Predict the structure of TetR/AcrR family transcriptional regulator.
Amino acid sequence: MPRTTDGDGTPVPQRLLAAATRLFAERGYDRTSVQEIVEAAGVTKGALYHYFGSKDDLLHEVYARVLRIQQERLDAFAGADAPVQERLRGAAADVVVTTIDNLDDAMIFFRSMHHLSPEKNKQVRAERRRYHERFRALVEEGQKAGVFSTATPADLVVDYHFGSVHHLSTWYSPDGPMSPQEVADHLADLLLRALRP
């Protein structure tokens, strides 16, 4: 049975994910071997295969862990007892901050998603669709209530915002002039201005 933690108490799955994320970001998914991942994590191949069935499973988990966090946070914003404008703005800003906080994961995903098996690819698309549908429901709620313009279909509004989010990994730099929260506030404000009646 593989050890579940190392000397400092870090669970082996987290060590493997951290090593895989760093290597996939530096070298690319297709140019990173399983051997390089286990060496960087300080574990055996047996340990990797105990927790992850394949390198493909690691790639899927790199993205899925961020999406799980984002889904939980979106559900909290959407279900809050606040005006729809506040809930949408909070959710719109949050997805920007959580993406920037996990920029390597986002970059790996958009660069390497095509390497996922058809089954994993379908699963990821379903998870993303669930997130986008919950986000879109906030836009539609505001449109039905008359606080958001109906001039642009909700789907297009959502695609507009997430297009910006998906490109963060290509231009955002932690050393740049804006903090993650400042970028998030600007993009959320742009979204709300686009929906103004």
User: Anything to note?
Assistant: The CA atoms of residues 107 and 169 lie 5 Å apart. The two ends are 61 Å apart (CA to CA).
